[in-house]
Write a structure and sequence with these properties.
It comes from Ibidorhyncha struthersii. The chain has no helices and nine strands. Strand 1 and strand 2 form a beta hairpin. By secondary structure, it is mainly β.
């Protein structure tokens, strides 16, 4: 859920990518799939629905890294907070999931959260709150 003030945009991948994310073609390695696709776990989404879609890294790229990038968000203030809640799964092969923040005046991405994957093969949920006085991407 991408929350800006009182509005909340749900992002569930059922029809395609949600509006918050760029076109999937720009992000090699990610595939949109269901739990019952025969690709191995997870066999359902975080709610237990095996016919719901989620994004997954393809097996060819698991040894390296792949990025998902949001569209541009507007600056935050007391009226416009940004809270992003997401569900994620780290497989038995392991890996690290990181969330980075790139402000428009900066060339670098600042790491604002990570999970090193100690608990594998289960859905987890996390919420991050972002404060930025300028436009940014996550």
């Amino acid at each position: 859920c991408f929350n800006s003030g009182s509005s909340c945009e749900k992002c569930d991948f059922e029809t395609n990518l949600c509006k918050a994310l760029h076109d999937l073609n720009l992000q090699p390695g990610w595939i949109r799939r269901k739990g019952r696709s025969g690709m191995g776990p997870p066999y359902s989404d975080h709610s237990g629905n095996d016919s719901a879609y989620f994004l997954s890294l393809s097996s060819e790229i698991r040894s390296s890294s792949a990025t998902l990038r949001t569209n541009v968000f507007l600056p935050t203030d007391k009226e416009h907070i940004c809270q992003i809640t997401f569900h994620y799964w780290i497989s038995q092969t392991g890996g690290t999931l990181m969330v980075g923040l790139q402000k428009h005046s900066e060339d670098t991405v600042t790491n604002i959260w990570q999970d090193l994957g100690e608990l594998k093969n289960q859905w987890k949920t996390n919420t991050i709150t972002i404060n930025s006085t300028e436009k940014y991407e996550v």
